[in-house]
Design brief:
DNA-binding; 12 helices; homodimer; mainly alpha
Chain lengths: 249, 249
DNA sequence: GATAGCGGATAGTGTCACTATCCATCTGAA
DNA sequence: TTCAGATGGATAGTGACACTATCCGCTATC
């Protein structure tokens, strides 16, 4: 396959393919002459992986390079597959982590996962990112959302098991690395989309007469006592505007 | 409060504060002279909201401006609070949505939420983003992850109820808008961090000899087998309290 | 043997979120 | 009263990022 076909089948423009080759994201094709090279199906696949990670997952090019490097090296001893791939999924820090509030949140984050008994390294970047969010919520006085922490933990735990099972079912190490990354990133992308739609749905079902239904009131305390679902709410009005909340006074 | 104090208390550098003022993210202070203005606590809070949305949530400035505009306008008739705020949380499209594969994924995404009976607009950007992820997974042959869809749906549904309850408990409309955004964005940031730690934990518990331990298998098979959908599961089992998942060992 | 495609190299583009200066004016402590 | 330092307003510059555009000399192919 020559580059033109690669371009056509992948939908990635030629200058971009060249860019990926330059940046080492895409391995060079097999040289068949001074000016010609042949690409295989693996190049096409690699190109799709890159686009998925960049376009859907929002990863920076440098992170993609690191991840693909790891995936390419089948016997890179002494590293946890997941840790290696995962590390590169972290977003660069933009928050100020030197404040007392942040450190306090970080301590709480660690205590939280320790209480859950999770096997997580004390220095994990995810603990930092969890602390980022917790500190921000506290600074804004949104402890009410922190009160939902158990829900988030439960959901995260619920998803992780099956996901890891899928990854572990991969036949070889490169496939596992790719599976970790695509699974984590694209799985989360799906989750985020679903989550926001679920919110819109739950929002639209909220009783517009002014007060939340009794079962809703209890939600904050227990775990989501009950949100009536579409199946139970026949002919739910589509996208009802929350008239109740439009008028402030 | 003068700008110097605002800078000191918020930790945001002066040029950045000026930038936010220029961009209309931060309302001007009350003029007390030709060259002086006074800022209040609400400016400090606004600054914190901006930093949370930009730094932790990763939103572009333009989206923040739109959101804050909506939050500022207490009687903006005819708009769904959530829809309005939500819309601006969407990431700009980078994927090619003109392919047959994408359209097919988009159809499936719509069918999925329709089957759930969710009240979601047919044109929702979240359906598009869901289709992005689904199409990418399919193109990569990762149908195995799509097989976990029910888990993602269940988790999304589980979280949405309590979250909406928190939002609806806000006293006024601006607070609700802010709560929607910070709750969605920062809540998801927490979830992502927890999710990845949960994966590392589940990964570390995976029996290296090849098969998952018994309790892990239960998670992988039992839950994976079937996530009871909201519609078919009686209230009792739905939204099972997190207690179930806390004691792992 | 023309012409389209190829690889390799270099330079340019557009966006984004700041960041840096300059200037004239004003404040507040000495 | 004086004057260093802060302030508001305006304009321009920066650095990261992910491409995108050209140019060149060579080559495959019709």
């Amino acid at each position: 396959m020559k580059v033109g076909e690669l371009v056509e089948r992948s939908g990635v423009p030629l200058p971009t393919v060249k860019f990926y080759l330059r940046e080492g994201l895409l391995p060079a094709g097999e040289a068949t002459g001074r000016n010609q090279a042949a690409y295989g199906e693996e190049h096409l696949r690699r190109l799709r992986v890159i686009r998925a990670l960049v376009d859907v997952g929002g990863l920076p090019i440098t992170a993609v390079r690191e991840i693909l490097r790891a995936a390419d090296d089948p016997d890179q001893a002494g590293h946890d597959v997941r840790g290696l791939a995962h590390f590169n999924l972290a977003r660069p820090t933009r928050t100020d982590r030197s404040t007392a509030q942040w450190r306090s949140a970080r301590v709480d984050a660690l205590a939280l996962v320790r209480a859950k008994g999770w096997n997580v390294h004390e220095e994990s970047v995810w603990l930092d990112q969890l602390a980022d969010a917790m500190a921000a919520l506290r600074a804004l006085g949104h402890e009410d959302i922190l009160g939902l922490m158990d829900h988030y933990v439960a959901s995260a735990e619920q998803l992780a098991g099956p996901e890891v099972a899928v990854v572990m079912a991969q036949p070889d190490r490169p496939s596992m690395v790719e599976s970790v990354v695509t699974g984590t990133l694209l799985g989360e992308a799906m989750f985020v989309a679903l989550h926001r739609m679920a919110q819109e749905d739950a929002s639209s079902r909220f009783d517009p007469s002014g007060r939340p239904p009794a079962d809703q009131a209890g939600v904050g305390a227990g775990v989501a006592e009950r949100v009536p679902t579409a199946a139970e709410t026949p002919a739910a009005t589509k996208h009802r505007p929350p008239a109740t909340y439009q008028a402030r006074e």
